Amino acid sequence: IAAAASDKVYLKPDKKDGVTQGQILVEVDTGGDVTNLGTLLAEQGNISLVGHAVNPQGRVRATTSVQLGGMVRLLARDNAAPVTGTGDADIPLKPTRGGTLTLGEDSVTEVVPHHDGKVAVDDTPQPVSRIELAAKDITLEKNAAVRATGGEIRFAATATGVNPYLSSDKAEDL
Predict the structure, then answer these.
(1) pTM of the predicted model, to two decimals?
(2) Cβ 130 vs Cβ 111: under 8 Å
(3) What are the b/e assignments for 83-108, b being 16+ CB within 10 Å?
(4) CA distances (Å), origin 171, targets 77, 81, 157
(5) Which residue has the higher pLDDT, 30 or 169?
């Protein structure tokens, strides 16, 4: 599930190894407002909300299984610009302006296990679940919940809304 506010939206399949492999990376040029008032659910999938102002006010939920890690990306950023000198034929994009991310009162952002009855032995590599929140300004209102059962939660409040420590935010990946 991808919701992006903009005059231009850029989609790129992530072919890299790691947490985001098999996901769709989303960036925008001139971002607008993205607001969720209800429920977004991606069974064994990825949810990306991308714009200059991102406002999840309801429930954003992805599930993860023994075969596929779920991911939620709430990215308040825009002005995606081409990165030169990367040698990538797809011309990767890097956002240059961070926006505002506001997780509304009583909102829930989560990645939880998908109960499909499948099991894996302990030494089998498991996909990692992740929630990424990135913006210039991040606000969690009263009782806002962010949880990734057995996974990672990464916040980044930077001028560009980019987290340089995430593989999905490295220039060669966008």
Answers:
(1) 0.84
(2) yes
(3) eeebeeeeebbbbebbbbbbbbeebb
(4) 15, 10, 18
(5) 30
